[in-house]
Amino acid sequence: MPIADRSTVLVVNAGSSSVKFTLFRIEDEAVLATGMVERIGLSATRLVYTGHKDEKRTRAAAVNNAREAVLLIIRQLTDANQGIIPNRKALAGIGHRVVHGGNQIHQSVIIDDSIKNIIQDCIALAPLHNPPNLAGIEACQSIFPDLAQVAVFDTAFHATLPEYAYLYGLPYHLYAEDKIRRYGFHGTSHAYVSREAAKYLQKPLSGLKLITCHLGNGSSITAVKNGRSIDTSMGFTPLEGTIMGTRCGSIDPAVVMHLMRHHQMTVDQIDRLLNKESGFLGLAKIDSSDARDVIAAMDTGNQQAAAAINLYVYQIRKYIGAYVAAMNGLDAVVFTAGIGENSPRIRELICNGQDGLDHLGIRLDSDKNSAAISRTTSIQSDDSELKLLVIPTDEALEIARQTLALI
Ligand code: ADP
Question: Angle, to 10 degrees, between the axis of helix 303-327 and the axis of helix 344-352?
Fold first, then answer.
């Protein structure tokens, strides 16, 4: 069946090692095609593509960077014989995930040269992410010069943080001149699950106090008061907050000086240690940063794996307590992302482990918590004062919605 003009929106998430895409039909938000180019810059780069009738195809791709990956994806989608939108006019717009918008970006925006300059200016703040994000935008512009393109920033949802939540206790000029402050990340996911929570609870978001726990390979926790992010656990970079797959989370910054003075470590070595060799991977010592492997190791008696999980859970429990204080109340805790959606065990440990959270009015129903969950589900017991929700996140859909709202 031919696809009507301006009836679809494409979402592009261009990273350094993979470029993901999803093509939505606007009318009903159906996914017409989705996939990614993965292992960019490595051997065996490939395009994994699910399109017509859900058939999944994988094919080798000679691709060296994000720009080439985006061009390949668009060729695949618009191919005259096999493409799902051979009619290029079928696109109404393209939404791009952009990690860092710095101080100047407070919401999603239509991309023009000034926005590209801002993304460029923020490369110092997100050196691994903003360059491929920009390359993806420019690749799309080269093929569709007249099509509206929208940038949806990971940091934008947190632009509402009050000064007392985003400032660090450093000399003020480091904030004023070097823009060193808390930015927060995963904003698209926190925004999406907050709105879905309000829909599910049938209450206006403007009257809700939520704590959204995005627990994935990277984890961040956000206090969402009346629909606005008022505090979040990630900071100047995604390194701050809880321990994660390979990141150390919050530590005393003096540890860095100690490593430099006593271990003669260089900046790059410390960067690698804190970002790539810490967290679950560094603590559990099982050669995996995957939460499933760490939990399995804990269950076979591995003490270090248990220590990693206990620390993770304890930190999340502390954020929940802190954000109840920050908002002076709470209506619901939301769990999302790989671990939050799929691990009843971690949710159980957060709610019931150590001393539990019942003082806050949080009580888990273990049967509801153990069931497989594929859409918004409440898992609190009948006598719980607060709601506990599991909400599968969908950052691509959120980007598509924000793109449509602007074009
Ligand atoms: P990313 O931050 O890369 O987007 P995801 O949100 O996809 O990450 O989450 C990936 C994490 O989710 C991995 O650590 C993986 O172990 C974890 N995960 C996925 N399924 C489960 C599960 N059933 N139990 C525990 N952890 C899980």
Answer: 60
Where in the sequence numbering do the catalytic residues fall? 154
Rounded to the nearest 5 degrees, what angle is found at the Cα of 247, between the Cα atoms of 246 and 249? Answer: 150
Element housing 195 (H / E): helix 187-201
> Mind listing the pLDDT tens digit for each residue in 249-308?
999 999 999 999 999 999 999 999 999 999 999 999 899 999 999 999 999 999 999 999
Note the pLDDT tens digit of each residue in 304-337: 999 999 999 999 999 999 999 999 999 999 999 9
Distance from residue 67's CA to the centre of ligand 1 (Å): 28
Is residue 395 classed as helix, strand or coil in its secondary structure?
helix
Largest interatomic CA distance in the chain: 67
Picking from 61, 67, 32, the residue whose alpha carbon sits closest to that of residue 47 is 61
Collect all residues with Cβ–Cβ distance below 8 Å to 157 and sequence separation of at least 6: 184, 187, 188, 190, 191, 222, 229
Which of 51-65, 102-116, 157-171, 256-270 is predicted with the least confidence, judged by mean pLDDT?
51-65
The set of protein residues with a Cβ atom below 6 angstroms from ligand 1 is: 216-218, 245, 290-292, 337-339, 342-343
- In this structure, the chain runs to a length of 407
* 10 sits in which H/E element: strand 8-14
Which atom of ligand 1 is nearest to 245's Cα?
14
